[in-house]
Amino acid sequence: MLSDTAKILGLPPSLVKNWTIGRPLTLNPSVAAHGTGSRNMYSMGDLHRIAIAAQMNADGLAPVVIQAVLDELENAVLAGSFAVVRNTIAGHAAWSHASRPHVEIVSPSATAGKGRSGFTALLRGSPACYLLDLEHIAGTVNDLAASFLSHARQQNRRSKSSVSPPPTKPVRKAREVDSPAKESAEFSPKRRFKLSEAAEPD
Fold first, then answer.
1. What is the DSSP secondary structure assignment for residue 78, as one 8-state letter?
2. Is beta strand 102-106 parallel, antiparallel or unpaired with respect to 128-133?
3. Is pLDDT above 90 for 144?
4. Helical H runs in 103-188?
5. Which one, out of 43, 44, 111, 133, has a CA that is 20 to 30 A from the CA of 53?
């Protein structure tokens, strides 16, 4: 849910909500809400993308730059990967203007065995570059989510153990019913006979 996602990532719920409705970013949840009372459901992949957007937003990148990176992350494998953002404009204007930069998701195989020279070849020819460690962000989010779920389970167990059993209703004592033997003893034929004799006129 949105509130849980915001708690895990340490973001304001209003920010996460705005990003999922396109203000100013488009971060569609895995299961979108449909109809009154329904809620958006977020997967771990959604949390990774929101955290990546939050990191770039904190670094001062413009929404158009952040959205360009998010669009490239649709089918990317984050493990060991980097996001390389290159622009033809140098300085702060490279990340604050309204044009989309060139974004490339670099996998470990792209620079395997090349060391520093591998990244140098990727960044050469671009006066402005932004490098984002996707694996580090994804790992941090995974740890935060695991800690949040563990805490939620503990709270759930504590709440269950503190619930007192419902009060038992007092057992009502059954009303004593006169038995046929008792009734016959009180109203014997002999007594009825005497009453009938007293009622006859002389």
1. -
2. unpaired
3. yes
4. 108-111, 116-123, 134-161, 180-186
5. 111
Confirm whether 30 is domain-assigned: yes
Q: State the Cα–Cα distance between residues 73 and 75, nearest whole angstrom.
A: 6
CB-based burial, 40-56: b 16+ in 10 Å, e otherwise: bebeeebbbbbbbbbbb
- The whole-angstrom separation of Cα 76 and Cα 107 is 9
Highest mean pLDDT of the ranges 57-71, 153-167, 182-196? 57-71
Asked whether residue 145 is domain-assigned, the answer is yes
The span from the CA of 114 to the CA of 146, in Å, is 35
State the Cα–Cα distance between residues 133 and 21, nearest whole angstrom.
26
Give the C-alpha separation, 137 to 110, whole Å.
20
- Distance, in Å, from the CA atom of 143 to the CA atom of 125, rounded to the nearest integer, reads 37
Q: Which residue has the higher pLDDT, 187 or 146?
A: 146
What pLDDT, on the 0 to 100 scale, is given for residue 147?
A: 93
The total domain count for the chain is 1
The structure tokens listed for 14 are 């209003």
Domain range holding 117? 2-150
Q: Which residues contact 69 (CB under 8 A, 6 or more apart)?
A: 52, 53, 56, 83, 85, 103, 132
